[in-house]
Write a structure and sequence with these properties.
The protein is α+β, with helices and mostly antiparallel strands. The chain folds into two domains: 240 residues, Serine Threonine Protein Phosphatase 5, Tetratricopeptide repeat; 106 residues, Immunoglobulins (Immunoglobulin-like), CATH 2.60.40.10. The protein is 44% helix and 21% strand. It has 16 helices and eight strands. The radius of gyration is 25 Å and the shape is globular. 32% of the residues are buried. The model has no long low-confidence stretch (mean pLDDT 96).
Length: 361
Amino acid sequence: MPEPLKNLYSEELIASLSLELKSVYGQFDSERFRESIFSENWDQKALKERMTYISVTLHQFLPSNYREAIEILKSVSSRFSGFEYMFFPGYVALYGLDAYEESISALEHFTKYSSSEFAVRPFIKKYPNRMMAQMAIWAESSNPHVRRLASEGCRPRLPWAMALPEFKENPDPVLKILEELKHDESEYVRRSVANNLNDISKDNPQLLLDVAKKWLGLNTDTDRLVKHACRFLLKQGNPEILALFAFVKPSHISIEAFKVQESVYMGENMEFSFILETQQGKLGLLRIEYAVDFMKNNGKLSRKRFKISEADYSGPKKLITKHHSFKSISTRKYYAGIHGLAVIVNGQELAYNNFVLDVKC
């Protein structure tokens, strides 16, 4: 099992942080700070809870004057880098909402070493027009981490973060930022633009289609950006998006020798295979997926799609062999019973079979 991410907040990390804080703020009580962090319920805290808890605990040991505290944090933050240090901008989100100028300067500083993508969102909620103007300024920064913040910070559906429902309803202010960043020299920034557009597609699919048509063909980097931005709609089988990427209706394709393991135990792999075949000489450009209909606790089925491959097949036949793991994962609970497996080609379901998921006695 991989080490849980929450364990990044180790005794060594907190000790190092304490040492640096003490070096710039002599009154910092390193020992009591460490004791407060590793309180009796520390082990029960998840990753984001630990991140927030460190910000809250810092507040107890830094000067009560917000501006003084921020200057101390800014002076030590450049000695640490990585997403685990998002408790620095987290401090701003918790205690700096009423000190706009100082807080925005701090968020710009902190994001160069970790990321202010979570912390900026309360400011967008409280100062929407002012903050989107600031995002436009950040989009022109010489620092790629700051430019990425201009996009990542205003994603309508940023995972683990405060939602921005106003941008789900009307993403026009966001699109102005993304337009500025679509040709960014940094893949890191362009990836954020794609993720933002993918968020937008979940509430405004037609808007993404319009953007995709406008941007596709500008250059190879933008083409990759657009393709990544369209992944939700591609997975949904949106016919206009599929057509945009030249995935034609698979009327020339048949599924032969579709074999699905009849039963599988939780914790094991379910094997399946099939042959794609055509009478037209070549299979052509295909997006091949499978979907599992998972049995839920209430007896209903819930479908999830998985991509197998995407390629231009020059031959008339292609054997696909695959397995799906039913090993325990934190994001899904499995229930015994009849499940389903579908084969999907270019957005259309071409074959279906049932199998049984069981529990070992």
